[in-house]
Amino acid sequence: MSSPSDRPRPAHHKAAIGLAVAAAIGGFLFGFDSSVINGAVQSITAHFHLGGVVTGLVVAVALLGSALGAWLGGRLSDHWGRTRVMLLGAVLFFASSILSGLAVTPWDLALWRVLAGVGIGIASVIAPAYIAEISPAGVRGRLGSLQQLAITLGIFAALLSDQLLATSAGGASHDLWLGFPAWRWMFGVCAIPAAVYGFLALRLPESPRYLVAQGRHDEAREVLASVLGPDEDAGRRVDLIRETIRADRKAEQRVTLRGPVLGLLGVVWVGILLSVFQQFVGINVIFYYSTTLWQAVGFGEQQSFLFSTLTSVTNVLVTLIAIALVDRLGRRPLLLVGSAGMAAMLGLMALAFAHSGGSAQHVTLSHGWGVTALVAANAFVVFFGATWGPLVWVLLGEMFPNRIRAAALGVAASAQWLANFAITVSFPQLLSQFGPSVPYVLYAVFAAVSFVFVLVRVPETKGVQLEDMESLHTSRQESRAHSAAARA
């Protein structure tokens, strides 16, 4: 007798997987474009004669564009549709890649990085929303995790291409082709996946939720029939979506994100804090500055590139663990394991760097502590990549009620990019003034606090239909109210 894993996937699951993979290419660009600067940081600093503050700004400024793109993407997608906004993101990616490679000053480089950031922000919002809206509930977690898998593959591809280009030129600052140094080509190669993303965006069917909102019920029914399969009635699902949209339009004021908790709905704050904690554990310090960090502790340029690439490979592989487990174990248990593991590994990294020598600008580690830091960093990536990396995007794509999903996801993703900016721009100064131990202590504290936050505030959304998210949050609020009344 064959096991469930041996049986072929139903045709409708294959259709949903195909659409989710195509949409997740935006995540690949997101990971590629946000990490490609890793291998170029030192060359940019030397070429433009930058100090630590300006270097941090050039690296992190794309994240401000990402916050703007996430905020815009959530709103534009309700007016233009998900696939048209994907196409806009692809165009921005393509243009910024070429222009960043041709930058003549640090300021126009920063401008093109902001443009790239807007594209990144759009992709970060549209892909999880689209995937959630075309996925059957039973596999929605796995398909939602494809966004993070694509991000990790993008990070890996960026670091690998950085390494190959730098190795081919004999160094990131050395000329490669057409008289341009390798670091400029690191930006330019992103134009290729951007073109692929634009092509796919033109061919993807529109989200059923958007189609119903526009009165295109037959098209919505066709899309749903292709991904739901024979066990679910696509027509009934269209009717259900139409009912929720009609109810929202009757109570138009309820579409606002405003609420009693510091001006926002409680569920929006949960999304914002999930996003902030995902960044405040310092994951992007590993991916943006890992090459620079490993050189700071005594490894050569080629070794540092190799270690950064291996870290990104680890991130890709452990994301597959999340895809396998998210719809079996649920979201909350995996997040709790991730928080505990990250806190422990960040604490170990802080301990290792506490034994460093040299100045803050030229840190040195003994062989034993250097190996400890390297192992702890990769173990931290394992815990993050198998839990918080993919699951935050899964939750942001599915946890909000239909009436506010796109807008709330945009706000939460904007908060994530602003948190990412704060961590990224502050790390060079923290490293310069205090050495690497202090920032890793801070990140460990945030990881520990995230454990408590998940335990107290994050709902389990495993197996819940998108149309039922409103009642899920209502029941949790009532449960908390009863508990508070009982304690009183």
Layout of helices and strands:
Layout: H1 11-35, H2 41-48, H3 52-80, H4 82-101, H5 106-134, H6 140-169, E1 175-177, E2 180-181, H7 182-188, H8 191-203, H9 208-213, H10 217-228, H11 234-250, H12 266-280, H13 283-296, H14 301-329, H15 331-354, E3 357-358, E4 363-364, H16 367-398, H17 405-434, H18 437-457, H19 469-487
Antiparallel strand pairs: 1-2, 3-4
Structure description:
By secondary structure, this protein is mostly helical. It has one domain: MFS general substrate transporter like domains (Growth Hormone, Chain: A). It contains 19 helices and four strands. It has a two-stranded antiparallel sheet with strand order 1-2. Strands 3-4 form a two-stranded antiparallel sheet. A hairpin with a 2-residue loop joins strand 1 (about 175) and strand 2.
Index terms:
single chain; 488 residues; mainly alpha; Growth Hormone, Chain: A; two-stranded antiparallel sheet; 2% strand; disordered N terminus
